[in-house]
C-alpha cells in the first residue's frame, strides 16, 4: 500500500478544540495509555469528517488498526454531538438577528430502490432530510436531526418544532415554497404561475429569492464536510454525525 501526506482545509482551532475535549474525556475515564495522543486522534477524526476518508484508508496513515480507528471516531463523535446546540438555545440567540433563513437539504445515502422510506421524490435519490437554519449573512446556525428522505420539508420542520420555536420568539423566517402553509413567522413566496402574478407579487418573489439564496451558503457549509456528501453508514448514526460537524463548525468559526 502506498501512503502519502495530505492536508485538511480546516483551521488549527478545530484541531485544538477537539483535542481539548478528548483530553478531558481521557481524564474522566481514567485512560492510562493509548496508541495515539489526543492531537493525533483529533486529526484522525477530522480527516474522517472533513475529507471523508474511509476506515480502510485511515489506518495506514495513522499506524493503527481499523478497529482502533473506528473506536476513536465513535468516541469523538459522541463527545461532539452531545455539545451541539439545541433548537431552543439557537432560537433564543437568533432573537438578536433581523431574520433567519430556513432550508432543507438531502444527505445522500447508499440505499437500494426497495428502501422507499429513504427515497426523496423531490431529488429522486435516497437520503436523509436535514433542516438548516442560517443567519441573514448565510452563516450556519443550526442543523436538525436527520429524518428519512421521504419526509417533506414542511413535515420535517413541524416534527422538529422549528416553526413553533421561531414563532414563539417572534423571529421572521424566510423559506421556499416547500414550506407553504407553515404559518407563524414563516414567510414564503407566492405559489402561482409567474405570468399570473401581479407586478408587486413578482417583485416580492424576486426579493424573497435573493434572501433565500443566502441560505444555500449554510447548506454548502454543511456539505463542505465531505463525509456528508455520500454517507455509507447506518442511518441511526447520521444525526450524531451532523451534530458533531455542527459543533466543530461553530467552534472553528467563533
Short précis:
The chain is α/β, with parallel strands linked by helices and 254 residues long. 46% of the residues lie in helices and 12% in strands.
**% residues in beta strands:** 5-15%
Distance between the termini: 39 Å
User: In DSSP terms, counting alpha (H) and pi (I) runs of 4 or more, how many helices?
Assistant: 9
Main structural class: alpha/beta
Envelope shape: elongated
Number of domains: 2
Largest sheet: 7 strands, mixed
Poorly predicted sequence stretches spanning 5 or more consecutive residues = none
Portion of residues in helices?
40-55%
Record field, number of beta strands: 7
Which whole number gives the mean pLDDT? 92
Radius of gyration: 20 Å
Query: What is the string of helix and strand elements?
Result: HHHHHEEEEEHHEEHH
Structural write-up:
With 254 residues, the protein is an alpha/beta fold. The protein has two domains: 103 residues; 137 residues, no CATH class. It is 46% helix and 12% strand. It is built from nine helices and seven strands. Strands 1, 2, 3, 4, 5, 6 and 7 form a seven-stranded mixed β-sheet that branches. β2 and β3 form a beta hairpin. α4 packs across α9.
Notable features of this structure?
2 domains; alpha/beta; 254 residues
Topology:
Layout lengths: L11 H18 L8 H14 L6 H5 L3 H17 L4 H7 L6 E9 L10 E2 L4 E10 L5 E4 L3 E2 L4 H8 L1 H7 L4 E2 L11 E2 L11 H25 L14 H16 L1
Parallel strand pairs: 1-6, 6-7
Antiparallel strand pairs: 1-3, 2-3, 3-4, 3-5
Helix pairs in contact: 1-2, 1-9, 2-4, 4-9
Amino acid at each position: 500500500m502506498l501512503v502519502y501526506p495530505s492536508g485538511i482545509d480546516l483551521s488549527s482551532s478545530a484541531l485544538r478544540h477537539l483535542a481539548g475535549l478528548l483530553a478531558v474525556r481521557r481524564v474522566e475515564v481514567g485512560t492510562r495509555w493509548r496508541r495515539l495522543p489526543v492531537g493525533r486522534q483529533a486529526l484522525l477524526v477530522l480527516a474522517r469528517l472533513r475529507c471523508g476518508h474511509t476506515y480502510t484508508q485511515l489506518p495506514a496513515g495513522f499506524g493503527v488498526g481499523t478497529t482502533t480507528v473506528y473506536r476513536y471516531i465513535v468516541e469523538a463523535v459522541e463527545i461532539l454531538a452531545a455539545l451541539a446546540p439545541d433548537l431552543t438555545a439557537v432560537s433564543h440567540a437568533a432573537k438578536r438577528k433581523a431574520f433567519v433563513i430556513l432550508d432543507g437539504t438531502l444527505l445522500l445515502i447508499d440505499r437500494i430502490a426497495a428502501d422507499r422510506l429513504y427515497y426523496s421524490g423531490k431529488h429522486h435519490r435516497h437520503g436523509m432530510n436535514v433542516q438548516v437554519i442560517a443567519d441573514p449573512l448565510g452563516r450556519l446556525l443550526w442543523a436538525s436531526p436527520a429524518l428519512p428522505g421521504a419526509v417533506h420539508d414542511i413535515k420535517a420542520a413541524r416534527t422538529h418544532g422549528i416553526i413553533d420555536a421561531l414563532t414563539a420568539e417572534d423571529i421572521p423566517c424566510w423559506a421556499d415554497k416547500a414550506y407553504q402553509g407553515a404559518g407563524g413567522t414563516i414567510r414564503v413566496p407566492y405559489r402561482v404561475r409567474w405570468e399570473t402574478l401581479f407586478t408587486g407579487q413578482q417583485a416580492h418573489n424576486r426579493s424573497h429569492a435573493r434572501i433565500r439564496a443566502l441560505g444555500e451558503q449554510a447548506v454548502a457549509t454543511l456539505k463542505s464536510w465531505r463525509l456528508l456528501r455520500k454517507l455509507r453508514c447506518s442511518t441511526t448514526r447520521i444525526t450524531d454525525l451532523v451534530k458533531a460537524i455542527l459543533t466543530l463548525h461553530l467552534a472553528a468559526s467563533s
